[in-house]
Structure formats: C-alpha cells, structure tokens
C-alpha cells in the first residue's frame, strides 16, 4: 500500500527569465530542496544553511533575490572566512540530494544546468568559480568552471579539469571568450562512467577519469554560486580593502527534463489534478493553435516512466485527459507537455 505524503508539490517551470518574481525569496523562484548553502554569517564566519531553513525563505546580505529581475544573487566579501581546507571565501550551493554523492564509475548521468551572469569580481585577481564537480576526498575537484577578467570584451570562461594521471595537476580549456561583466552564460555539466563533460554557450569539452588513478570510494556532487578566487593575501603587499564578488543565477536545475524549452509559447493552459494523487491523473491543457502534442512523465533522474497519449478534445484546441498511473511507485514525477514551439513542466507527487 502506498503511504500518504502530507506535502503538496506543484510547480510550473517557466521558460523565460521574466518569470522570476523579484518580490519572493530565492526558494520561491528556484527548487533548492536538493542543496545546502555554504555562506557567511553576520560576523563573516563560515556558516551552512541546511535544507529546512534554506527552503523556508532564507535570505541574507550574501544570498537574496535581485529586486529588479528576480535572479538569485550570490554576493561574497573578500574578507569572508574560507571553508576548511580552502583559501578563498564563497557563497555557494552544495548538492546534498537529487542523486548526489555518486561514485566514479556510476553509469547514471548526473546533470547540472544553469544560466547566470558574473556581475562583479576583484580587479586585482578577477576570477570566480560559477560551477563545480567536487568530491569528498582531498584533491577531488574534478571540474571547476571559472570566469576570468573584468575588462569589457576581454573576459572568458574555462573548464578547469584535473589530469587523469598521478600528478592530478590542473589545466584549463577556454569555452567562451570575448565576454563582459553582465553577459549571460548558459552552462551544463554532466558526469557519467567517469567522463565529465562541460558545455558553455554551446561549446563543449570533456575529461575521462579512470579507477587506476581516481578512487572508486569517493563521493561526487555539484556546486554552483560564487567561489571568489581572491582574499586580502592574494596580492603583495596584502590589501585590507574589502571587495565584493557577485554572481546572479537565472536558471538552476539538476534535471534534464527542463532544458529543451523554446521561446515562443503556444500553450495557453496546463494543469494537473489531483495533486498529490494515488492512481489517476487528470491533465488539462489548451493550445493557441492546432499543434502536435507530446505528453510524458519522468522521474527525478529525468528517466521516462510513462508516455501519455492525447485523445480527447473538448473544444477547439482544449484537451482534458485522465490517465491510470497506479503502477508508478511512490515519489516525485514531472509531467512534460511539449508542442512544436513550447515545453512546460509540472511537478506531481504520487503517494
């Protein structure tokens, strides 16, 4: 028998940046349920915000919603306390669930996609990390996605990999150049069977790590935010001036389902009920034109679990379908409605 969940989850993932609400906290615009926040407290000491507090509307001077466009702001003071074992301060999300802590040879594809802007860096050392694959062991940063530069048209983003040899030294591959502060960056990071692939604004590169060099017992996870590559001792003599780095995120997802949306919407209405549900799911949608439609359900790993065939038209371009989902295990699923020009996704809880 399926046990009952008491939490209702229903989220429409819009495809446009303008859908972010500038009046809401970050957790109302982004799904942060799979992350913890590594940040600073009011005394600039390192502090961690765990899921319950983070998803309950947490904001601070270093983590908040931009009041103009609704983006998620990561703001880092240069005199902030670094995390243990690191040199620089950060305000950064660290993946906790949603498939985190995987092993090197995991055959599941682990996936992170984001859209962000680098707003401010420190001119003396103008670098920030906007995304990572990190491990629990020492020297286990398999990938750091690093922005460098502050001069207009001279900034670039590179994937910083560890080599697959005993030196485990670091090297960079430039994926985007000719950038300026405030330019929009789209990136995707994946890892499967030891191969890490990074894509920035359409350009990709990869590195494969093998068990003869890298342990099979390490646990890997994603990070995203602002890991400022500067502190007062980064220059000589040390500079006591406090500078701020700032990155702003417009999209952040651990699920591939959300990444193929286009920019012109012909879906006027899309809803599901009941939610939560046990064995039946009613899907209603209205189109602005006579368009071919695909409907499917996916699990949290973005794996297809059920294809839904539209059959019943109530009126011109208005559909209501009821599907039997009693065979699905308890859990969270995504219903994706796709036309020739639009993708929309709803989150559904099966209990």
CATH topology of the largest domain: Jelly Rolls
How is the biggest beta sheet arranged? 8 strands, antiparallel
Q: What is the total tally of β strands?
A: 24
Query: What is the CATH top level name of the largest domain?
Result: Mainly Beta
Poorly predicted runs of 5 or more residues: 1-18, 258-264
The helix-and-strand class reads mainly beta
Beta-strand proportion: over 45%
What coarse outline follows from CA principal-axis ratios? globular
Alpha carbon gyration radius: 22 Å
Helix percentage = under 10%
Q: Mean pLDDT, rounded to whole units? A: 86
Core attributes:
mainly beta, Jelly Rolls, 2 domains, 2 helices
Structure, explained:
It is a single chain. This protein has 351 residues and is mostly beta strands. The chain folds into two domains: 17-256, Jelly Rolls; 263-350, Sandwich (Immunoglobulin-like). The protein contains two helices and 24 strands. The protein has helices spanning 26-29, 51-54, and strands at residues 12-13, 35-40, 46-49, 63-65, 72-77, 90-95, 110-120, 127-135, 143-148, 155-162, 170-179, 184-192, 195-200, 203-208, 220-228, 244-253, 267-273, 280-287, 294-298, 304-308, 313-315, 318-324, 331-338, 343-350. The strands form four sheets. It has an eight-stranded antiparallel sheet with strand order 3-2-6-15-8-9-10-11. The protein has a seven-stranded antiparallel sheet with strand order 4-5-16-7-12-13-14, with no helix packed on it. A hairpin with a 2-residue loop joins strand 21 (313-315) and strand 22.
